Amino acid sequence: MLKRLSAVLVVAFSAAPALAIECPITHAIYEQPGGDVSLRFTALPEDAAVNQIAAFSIAIDGVTAKFDGAIYLPNGFGQPNGVVGLDCTGADGEQCGFWEGVVYALGGDGIEEYPHDAEIGLAAQMAPRQVLLPQFAVNVWYSLLRQDAFADERNVLDTFTLTACAK
Description:
- There is one protein chain.
- The protein has 3 helices and 10 strands.
- By secondary structure, it is an alpha+beta fold.
- It has one domain (about 20-165).
- The protein has a 10-stranded antiparallel beta sheet with strand order 6-5-4-3-2-1-10-9-7-8, with no helix packed on it.
- The longest helix is centred in the N-terminal third of the chain and has 14 residues, at about 1-15.
- The protein is globular, with a radius of gyration of 18 Å.
- The protein starts with a helix and ends with a strand.
- The model is unreliable at about 1-20 (pLDDT under 50).
């Protein structure tokens, strides 16, 4: 009986369609389970560095601080690196470093480097199904934001899943 139930569950879950959204990266909206943590890509700012390939923001329900992020291709090394800044308490609105690391994405063949194709441009680049910011959640856990970010048994994770496309 247990083997038959296991087989039925495997067939049922493997038959479920995978979420497939065709969305330009600049319109992509990602969330974590429960929807309390989201990541949104935006167009590059006019003053973006030459090697910046993406801009995004992260919002965590219950946390008033604003997380702004960017992804860069460092000179001489093609692995996409990301940075997330956090609003500082200063009146000048300057960003403080909060997270920095390699950015990964879920592609057709599994986990791979964050996609970047300079020939087609950011506006035409399609959003990956998931974006991974390794150790982002650890930085939130060990920050002063911990109590608000993890309130009500909420989890903050490193993985963001594409859930919508803002048009």
